[in-house]
Amino acid sequence: MTNSILLGAIADDLTGATDLALMLARNGMRTVQVVGVPEEDADFGDAEAVVVALKSRTIGADDAVAMSLASAMTLRQAGAEQFLFKYCSTFDSTATGNIGPVAEALMDFLEVPIAIACPAFPAAGRSIYQGHLFVGSALLSDSPMRDHPLTPMRDANLVRVLQAQSTAKVGLIPLDIISAGPEAIRAVLIKAKQAGFGLMIADAVRDADLRVLGEALSGARLITGGSGVAMGLPDNFRRQGRIGTEPVPARMIAPKGKSVILSGSCSTATRGQVQAAIDAGRPAFRIVPADVVAGSQTVADIANWVLEHSGKEPALVYSSDDPDAVLAVQKKLGREEAGLLVEQLMANLAVILRDNGFSRFVVAGGETSGAVVGALGVHTLQIGPEIAPGVPWTRSIAGPDLALALKSGNFGAPDFFLKAWDLLDD
Ligand code: ADP
Known about the structure:
The protein is an alpha/beta fold. Helices cover 38% and strands 22% of the residues.
């Protein structure tokens, strides 16, 4: 194995991992993303940064810890000097985890006595002041995250939230220290360590704060936070002359083959993108879950339709529907069952299309993407050009050679499905 990576990151969900991988790539690191816990002898090519995408945000804390540690072991073996545990910029977690338990397990494993926790991402409106997380102008606890179905966030005080799920003592690095620069931050961390603190929430309200924080963390073995905190890290390696200045490529060479769009996201942005593709006259096939259950829509039928309708322009297969229709389906089939039915259908369809010469896929929806990527047998993705904020083209490494754009439901402009292809070359 010839791996020699500098930065190893572990993210608690797939589209969050992509977001982080893109942040690192944009800041000049050759980055690959691995889906699921990497194999012990995984080949990361010439990557300088590896981002492992787990699905560990809402599973039991013990399982989240085990997956994160297994990933950290492989990343350490591959040469990682610095580790980043990446979670959501809205600090999505329950009263018992998993941010605290995973952070502490990684601290033990890496023998780190103190680590920062900073989910701030000012470009997306997530800022932290006096330890309180704001979403736009609202406190986290007053934002829609208050009613999230899995991780309702009812307290904006991150010191308190993290303390509730950690055994380490949690403290705060306030904004005036961040503003005072890297030396001041390092001095506070040393003092905090001596005073028995283990995890430190860091204030940050602008990108400049995250860059200063990044500089202060040069050489830190473990950092925890959102993708924002990663923006200052590549520069540390660059200052040491260990990475180049290559910008992320504006275009990507894709394997020859046919193209298709699979949309299983029902988010507002995706539904707009589906409508825009239909309005532009693209061939579009609507999946109706009730017909799938009844057997009047089968994966073979849909695959045949795609094969017949794919020409110069990619065809679209979508199950995306408005909230009332989704609710009606969920009432009939059950929420989880309806989700799995559509995910499984998309995954099976993707495999048939791959076996029939399709090599370029745009997939909409976080869970949908996870199902499709898993079924396609793709484990490692090289990060390519940015289609929309947070969404890059990627190309698979090892396994089947594919170009994949995996879009989280709410990302992208209305013309995403139409324009994404413009960045690919033969
Ligand atoms: P997003 O990123 O927008 O949240 P996901 O793919 O993560 O998208 O989640 C969408 C979920 O909704 C998936 O489990 C998908 O299978 C399910 N789904 C898609 N279409 C329908 C539909 N018409 N009725 C019910 N559930 C659906």
